[in-house]
UniProtKB/TrEMBL annotation:
Compartments in which it is found: Cytoplasm
Pfam families listed in its UniProt record: Sua5_yciO_yrdC
Annotated signal peptide: none
Gene Ontology, cellular component aspect: cytoplasm
EC number: 2.7.7.87
Protein name (database record): L-threonylcarbamoyladenylate synthase
Family: Belongs to the SUA5 family.
SUPFAM superfamilies xrefs: YrdC/RibB
GO molecular function: ATP binding; double-stranded RNA binding; L-threonylcarbamoyladenylate synthase; tRNA binding
């Protein structure tokens, strides 16, 4: 089902359907500020495996996690360093993903994370409503591996089709490029992927930032 979230009734029905689908371990496509995402309940390993299968990629590229509020991350990571708090205040919700050490007690399997998790709070009302209803969701870009990320629900459907139970159509993604990924587990904060937030913007907020090449 594709729900046009520009219509209040369809948006309400779509969010309810997406919440129910995620609760059943099924996949949902949702709009974000950067690109469209394909999402699953982060604490359902089978659903995360289905997400990876739908994209056609393996666990060597772990799935990021989206959250619906700043405070949600306190229960997901080992500790939130002051640097992370500063970045969250500056760029969340928005196009910055932070890599932190995850809490070892969490029962999830996001792929080969080496004890870390990539977290982001998106700047999109439909995504935030869904995340606040479902809780943390494993969300990757809504495309087949190796193909361009979808910036509309139609593009996502063209690639993912019936592998996804519910599509939430929030119009064209306003940013249209993936988030910037910043690794805070490194000795010096390191950009693993340049994207929606510029390196210069990061340096204005926290000072020294390194860059590193990483594909995928």
């Amino acid at each position: 089902m594709i729900y046009d979230c520009a219509d209040p009734v369809a948006r309400r029905d779509g969010l309810a359907a997406a919440q129910q689908a995620a609760g059943r371990g099924e996949l949902v496509v949702l709009p974000t500020d950067t690109v469209y995402g394909i999402g699953a309940n982060a604490f359902d390993p089978a659903a995360v495996q289905a997400l990876l299968a739908a994209k056609g990629r393996g666990p060597d590229m772990p799935v990021p996690v989206l959250v619906g509020s700043w405070t949600t991350i306190d229960g997901l990571v080992m500790a939130v360093p002051p640097l992370a708090r500063t970045l969250i205040e500056a760029f969340w919700p928005g196009g910055l993903s932070l890599v932190l050490e995850h809490a070892p007690s969490l029962a999830w399997d996001l792929g080969e994370t080496r004890g870390t998790v990539m977290l982001r709070m998106p700047l999109h009302p439909v995504a935030l409503d869904l995340l606040r209803a479902v809780g943390p969701m494993a969300v990757s870009s809504a495309n087949r591996s190796g193909q361009p990320p979808a910036t509309t629900a139609a593009q996502a459907y063209a690639q993912l089709g019936e592998d996804v139970s519910v599509y939430l159509d929030g119009g064209s993604a306003p940013v249209g490029v993936a988030s910037t990924v910043l690794d805070l587990t490194a000795e010096v904060p390191t950009v693993l992927r340049e994207g929606a937030v510029g390196v210069d913007q990061l340096r204005e907020v926290i000072g020294e930032v390194r860059t590193a090449d990483r594909s995928g």
